[in-house]
Amino acid sequence: MQPALLMLILTSVAMSAIAQLLLKMGVGQARVTDGAGAGIAFLQSPWVIAGFGLYGLGAILWLYVLARLPLSAAYPFVGLGFILTMALGVLALGESISPIRIAGTLLIALGCVCVSRSIA
How far is CA 78 from CA 40, 42, 83, in A? Predict the structure, then answer.
C-alpha cells in the first residue's frame, strides 16, 4: 500500500473518531426540556454541527481512498476508529474502561495489523 493512501485512510478514520467526540460533547451540552425538542436542540449545538462537518470531510477522503484501493483492503482500517474513539472517550471525557474492553480493542488493532500486512 502506498504511504500516501495509508495516511489518507488514517486521517479519515481519525476524523470520524474526532467527529464522534464532538457529537457526544454536543448532545451532552444541549439543554432539552421535552422529548419533542431534542432533535432541534442537538442540531443547534456548535459541537454537533462541527461533528457532522468533520464526518463530511472524512467521507470525502474515504471516497478518494475507495477509488484507489479494493474495499476489502481499505475497510478493515475502519476498526482503528474503535480504538481512537475509545481513547478519546477516556482522555477527553473521562470515561472508564474495563480490562475486557481493552482486550477487545487490542484484538481489533491486531486484526488491522494483519490486514495491512496482507496487502501487496
Answer: 30, 26, 10
